[in-house]
What we know:
This protein is of the alpha+beta class. It is built from six helices and seven strands. The chain has a seven-stranded antiparallel β-sheet. Strand 4 and strand 5 form a beta hairpin. The longest helix is centred in the C-terminal third of the chain and has 31 residues. The N and C termini lie far apart (62 Å).
Amino acid sequence: MKRAFLFVLGVVAALALLSLLPLPFERKVHVVNTLVLNAPPQVVYDYATTPAHWPKWHPASLAVQGATDHPLTVGEKVAEEFRLAGRHGIIHWKVVEAKPPFEWRIEGEMNRRASGEVRYTLTPEGTGTRFKRDFIYRTPNLLFLMLDPIFIGPRIRAESAQGVKQLAQIFETKTPATSATSTTSALPTISAISAIPASASIPAAATRSARAQ
């Protein structure tokens, strides 16, 4: 009886260990959200690519550190504290593509391993902007692969949808700028942003750090 128990325990431990090993293949999942925002591309681009604004509209973003107070250009880096689908951590982003005001892409790294990617595509539509956000995440191990369709994926999609919805609410209160060069004068009109609750509970220390940037 004791031997049988030890055998079963050993099998369970082996399976648990195998489930945490990296997959022998790469699997990427795209979470795409598209909507029209009430502002020209340059204003949307400047706002969305400035990390200090992320915790104001995306529920997974808790705080940011580094280059946070301006639209990031190629090569710039920022660290983001997040809570995504119940997982808490810090991801280091690097801008790998920036073509204002139409395209922007960052790649993330956690524990020195590629973890995710975010792509923004902006297209003029009337007096507004069609904004497309493509979040790409990788499957690190077998356990993640098994849990993704049932638990992880649905929560990530829900949080991404909530994020772009809150971004739209921010721009609903804005008056579109008359030209792409009027970004400076247009952004102060986001005074109503402070009236919109942050989408995530940000620790006080993290908030001070983000503002200090």
